[in-house]
């Protein structure tokens, strides 16, 4: 035994075990972070909360339930919350994401469970992921095409069919704007620098002037052609809109060009939820940030080494 200790083998095994434990701990932490982070992409149920009768009539709140928290009576009273009389010394408080930022003014609100008379998950509650103003919740009240209402028995299916068409038009418009037009602008700049170089060298004679003028006119013609095509795509993108009825019963018109995705989380099977989760993770890894880096994906930042 003493000779085995003197050989140094125990320290080798101890070092190997320490490294293995450290790696397992690191992998565990990464898996924990990944699991907690990717829960964000899972389509959570959307609730409709019916509040207790008020003087103004029935009140509904629609949104995702983000957190349940037990709060003491004293904390709520210190915060200025009016509580019902009774002996209860603690209350359950809900943190709800209500979305519809442009009309609600904030993404989240809190409710006390004692103020809620019922919680339901209607199958026709619609969730919209938008380019701006965050998520929207409500009921699909109709579809518009060139300002005229669409008729049909399945507006939800029509919505799902039109969203990929709008996305394709958006990609075409982005390619024209950031690839084709950018290339022409770059050619304009090269032509300008070439002209200045000839001027400095006193070589800008009539022949060079005519050549540069003809090339500039050709670039202008190509640019106008692309601008016309871009305007046509923009008209097609703005042609369709949906009508969304919010929790207050008000109907909002939302252009489909502002909608990135739409789904009914309360009416999805496990397979549909998994497919939605996969698509959302893919978009997070490949899309560019938007809304001042508060929404969208992490591309191309994900390609930059830390």
TrEMBL record:
Sorted UniProt keywords: Coiled coil, Membrane, Transmembrane, Transmembrane helix
Transmembrane parts of this sequence: 12-34
Keyword Coiled coil: yes
Organism annotation: Serratia fonticola
Protein name, entry field: ABC-type phosphate transport system, auxiliary component
Presence of keyword Membrane: yes
Coiled-coil features, chain-numbered ranges: 181-236
